[in-house]
């Protein structure tokens, strides 16, 4: 039995609210169970120096967790004067994942920065950030198209992510914190709406896992991503 009482292939409840902030070109508030993330996408007519006059656009991301997003208060990274290695790794993952679904020529020479701020954490914050970040990105692109700044949609497919793991010897879908902290194996799967693989992060804690178990996790991930993509489609409809 999972701590939440969910079936092994059951996602946490997913909800998305769009148009959260006044100024961002795209924004949403995504809830995956008790993990809540505010995602905003900001369009800027500038590029990193190495991309100037290249004809290519750029999508990047920043990630952060509010001090009381977890059970005990964490010090703001700004107060510490530097980002943690975990934060840097996650925001690079988000950026890589979102760029995989973008035609950067069609985007044109502009940058879209997707900010993912974790309001409340209960496992899977990077996955929720990628899934919600894509919605914010899509809304920002829609605003560009409506304004006539770009002529065609540069987003080639949906991008979403979900975690899977082996908990209590059983492969399960969409780990919450109680499971993630005790899982023998945990993995994050980033995929396109068409089922293409973007990135897989997986590791064993203690015991190894087999190819057969990995295949089970993969099957669960495909089911979970399909549900997340359906939620994305409903949010932008």
TrEMBL record:
**UniProt entry keywords in alphabetical sequence:** Nucleotidyltransferase, RNA-binding, rRNA processing, Transferase, tRNA processing, tRNA-binding
An example of a Gene Ontology BP annotation on this entry?
rRNA 3'-end processing
Q: Which residues form the Exoribonuclease phosphorolytic domain?
A: 10-140, 159-224
Q: Name one Pfam family in it.
A: RNase_PH
What Enzyme Commission number(s) does the record list for this chain? 2.7.7.56
Q: Which InterPro entries match?
A: ExoRNase_PH_dom1, ExoRNase_PH_dom2, ExoRNase_PH_dom2_sf, PNPase/RNase_PH_dom_sf, Ribosomal_Su5_D2-typ_SF, RNase_PH, RNase_PH_bac-type, RNase_PH_CS
Q: Which of this chain's residues are annotated to bind phosphate? A: 86, 124-126
Query: Broadest EC class?
Result: transferase
Quote the catalytic activity from the record: tRNA(n+1) + phosphate = tRNA(n) + a ribonucleoside 5'-diphosphate
Which one of the record's GO molecular function terms can you name?
3'-5'-RNA exonuclease activity
User: Subunit comment for this entry?
Assistant: Homohexameric ring arranged as a trimer of dimers.
Query: To which protein family does this belong?
Result: Belongs to the RNase PH family.
**Summary of the function given for this chain in its UniProt record:** Phosphorolytic 3'-5' exoribonuclease that plays an important role in tRNA 3'-end maturation. Removes nucleotide residues following the 3'-CCA terminus of tRNAs; can also add nucleotides to the ends of RNA molecules by using nucleoside diphosphates as substrates, but this may not be physiologically important. Probably plays a role in initiation of 16S rRNA degradation (leading to ribosome degradation) during starvation.
The entry's protein name is Ribonuclease PH
Which gene holds the coding sequence for this protein? rph
